[in-house]
What does this fold into?
Amino acid sequence: FIVNNYAYYDAATHGVDFDGMLASLKAMPAGAIVVLHACCHNPTGADITSAQWDLVIDAVTTGGLIPFLDMAYQGFGAGISEDGAVVRRFAAAGGALLVSNSFSKSFSLYGERVGALSVVAASAEEAARVLSQLKRVVRTNYSNPPMHGGKVVATVLSTPELRALWEDELAGMRVRIKEMRGEFVRKLKEKAPGRDFEFVREQVGMFSYSGLTKEQVEALRAESIYAVDTGRICVAALNSKNVDRVIDAIAKVL
It folds into this structure.
């Protein structure tokens, strides 16, 4: 495969460069596989809107592209059903579709590497051919995956009481992350009134492109605060006990 990038993030606006993204999709050759984050975009935290998804689905469908939806954070955005809506919309549009689910975060099973690859094919015959190729890949990569994590997820999802408890706990984490975004913005506004970080509040999911430069990130390390050189921070790692120290350190390097 020849792997290319498509336009997505606009650092100047701290949001999605949707015009650039749409132009990139329309320029792709038919049959190209395009990887899209279904929700909670990693690393930016910037998601496209429902109306923009309509245009993306149309561009992918009319262009003969094959969508590969990466969904590692379902439930951390607006809700389990809401975050999965784009999958249903692509399926309704027809055509081939691949969906990669990860339960590492939503079930706190990061070390178990639990997930699923779902494929929608145009026909039963095509599905059989795809399955045979997937089996070849599985056989050469890991043959038989560990069963423990998968059984944990299957048990929770198939047991009404456990599923209800899991959904409630996931909702609690989703709300907590949103609250920490708000707290981050509020406290940073107090410490650095000349800077606008409101975009962090508008982002979705566990991560945020904070707008910090590589030099600022390096300076933060002297304060024992660590982020990726791109300025990506993990909002989920913030809590009431560490947020003030993080804010003080960021304000110091701005």
